[in-house]
Amino acid sequence: MRKKFSKPLRAFFYQLRQEEGASIVEFALIAPLFIFFIFALIQLSAALIIDNALEASIREAARYGIAGQGSGARDDEIRSRIQTVARDYSGGLINPSNLTIMINAYPNFQALDANTSGENGSGRGNQAVKYQVQYTWDTTIPIFGASNLLVLKAQTPVMNEGFEN
């Protein structure tokens, strides 16, 4: 035998079965997560753009330095080229004055591989040179860890052509 509920209890259970407003509750639960993922995707895209700009700038500097181009202030010209390419390729996301640029020359690749300290500068002809650039980017949301700061690096070792010093 089926037990009958009182009228107020039946009205309460009837209200629970109603689906009006369910979509707004679902939206309220899902929207913050969706918005977070959208911002994370935008930030990840910006990080990849910056990383690509650093790689392009270091390749351009190495190409310039390998051939021994430039006048007496060759190292300054290479640093300036790195800053210009990084700024242009990043669409303005990189502040060139915040780049850390290291250029070290070694007698050969074996010395470079042995992690010995090299002389500062783009070197002479037939020397191995390691170009490095580092940029610390202050992200908007700390999605890459506990800190808002993300350190991006690029480097390339090259062998200078046999140009005259």
Q: N-to-C SSE series?
A: HHHEHEEE
Strand content: 15-25%
Average pLDDT works out at 86
Q: Residue share in helices?
A: 40-55%
> What strand line-up does the widest sheet have?
2-1-3-4
Largest sheet geometry: 4 strands, antiparallel
- Overall shape: it is rod-shaped
Q: How many distinct helices?
A: 4
Termini, distance in Å?
A: 105 Å
Please give the radius of gyration in angstroms: 29 Å
**How many separate structural domains?**
1
**What ranges have pLDDT less than 50 throughout 5 or more consecutive residues?**
none
Number of strands: 4
Alpha-beta content class: alpha+beta
What's the multimeric state?
Answer: single chain
Q: Would you give an account of this structure?
A:
The protein has 165 residues and is of the alpha+beta class. The chain contains four helices and four strands. The protein has one domain (22-159). It is rod-shaped and about 100 Å long. The model has no long low-confidence stretch (mean pLDDT 86).
SSE inventory with pairings:
Layout: H1 7-17, H2 22-66, H3 74-89, E1 100-106, H4 109-113, E2 119-120, E3 128-138, E4 149-159
Antiparallel strand pairs: 1-2, 1-3, 3-4
Structure summary:
With 165 residues, the protein is α+β, with helices and mostly antiparallel strands. It contains 4 helices and 4 strands; from the N terminus they run H-H-H-E-H-E-E-E. Helix 2 packs antiparallel against helix 3.
Protein traits:
single chain, about 160 residues, alpha+beta
